[in-house]
Amino acid sequence: MVTSEQFFGRYGLCAIVSLLIILFIPGLVRVRAAEAESSWPYANETKQQRDTRMKWWREARFGMFIHWGVYSVPAGTYKDKQIGGIGEWIMNRGKIPVAEYKKFAKQFNPVKYDPDAWVRLAKTAGMKYLVITAKHHDGFALFDSKVTDWDIVDATPYGKDLLKPLARACRKHGIKLGFYYSQSQDWCHPGGAASGGHWDPAQGGDMDEYLRTIAVPQVKEILTNYGDLAVLWWDTPFKHMTKERADMLQPLVKLQPDILTNNRLGGKYPGDFTTPEQRIPATGLDYDWETCMTINGTWGYKSYDHNWKSTEKLIKNLVDIASKGGNYLLNVGPTSLGEIPQPSIERLKEIGLWMKVNGEAIYATTASPFSKLTWGRCTKKVRDKTVTLYLHVFDWPKNGKLLVPGLRSQVLRASMLANRQLLQAVKHKTGVIINVPDKPLDQHVTVIKLELKGPLNVKQELPK
Ligand code: GLC
Predict the structure, then answer these.
(1) Which CATH number is correct for 47-361, 3.20.20.80, 3.40.50.300, 1.20.120.530, 3.30.450.40?
(2) For the whole prediction, is pTM greater than 0.85?
(3) Engineering a disulfide at 425: which of 151, 302, 411, 459 sits with its beta carbon 3.0 to 4.6 angstroms away?
(4) Ligand 1: which residues within 6 Å by Cβ?
(5) Which residues contact 283 (CB under 8 A, 6 or more apart)?
């Protein structure tokens, strides 16, 4: 039998210690987060300043990701064996020794590279920005780097900076330019991190030294030699990118005062937007985000990956993302000759045809006010207090009646976006019913435009 005195004597101390831990840990976490944010160059930005910096990106909604490098030479096959996983990871997955891998650079000769055509393709697709891998995890630089020979100029027969003409083409065609830079993983420079650990003694070395001699000067190079940059896209910080290490890179961002950075630097830096990879969040998020995604199954070119998503799927993804307030960064993986694979070109052109007609329902829109629509998605635009809803119909109603559930606002005008045909909108006890033609106008997604009178008023029951 334990008396209450004994009980408290025995457990009281534990209870007090636990209580202290519970009370203090959140405080400690907050202090650490605040510390991380204090060296964040935009930590003291006002909401208005931030909104101004983010404006173009929030309106763009659609961008092109380009994964390009030496890995496009083996293109998924090493020593006659197909190496599983994504193409740009072939060196890591195949445990290819550094000296062996470097030999591929001798065959990296993208004589068909036409940056102007790439940028025009992005523009035709309706994309507003592009982000290219200036350096991926294999450490190979697509630009002329003064701190290494492991770059396009010194290690390949091509011998010319690939990013300069791309930057020029972007400026010419009004497409914003971003660079992806793998700051932590580097499988060819000594000291760079490697997922799963190093597999070649040549990779051994000190990571801080690697950061000082390679990553820091290279990030300076890409932030100063290519004109205005819109985005810096960090990747795979893992545990290696401690706060101290992230602090070696973070201040460099000031070299491009208006640049946006993602959340993958490490050291708890929040960045300007988060980066769901290969997936679309289930609901809207109340912060800026960008889904990056491949058109087939790989980022870097793999000769035998024919798992292409359909144009319809890609359009629906774009619509789904816009309806949740995010951006879509859609990837192409060019070959070692410098060609974007034909199936990607076809799909991007088809998306472009859709965007030409329906872009108004994507650009500068914000998230849907509806929690769920059984027939499709909705995007919203508010201009001078006038609210417009764009109804993206995935499943065309067989009975010719499209119910907008829970919409209580008065509809000023309902029309088909593609041909401006006016439609009748009828108030109903469960919302508004739009009388639509028998057939959709578009083979992929048909958009109906609803201009509302007065404020937006939606009373939708949340799905159980
Ligand atoms: C990953 C991969 C990488 C790819 C990136 C794109 O984190 O490591 O290869 O570049 O995702 O989001």
Answers:
(1) 3.20.20.80
(2) yes
(3) 411
(4) 67, 86, 88-89, 235-236, 277, 292, 299
(5) 324, 371
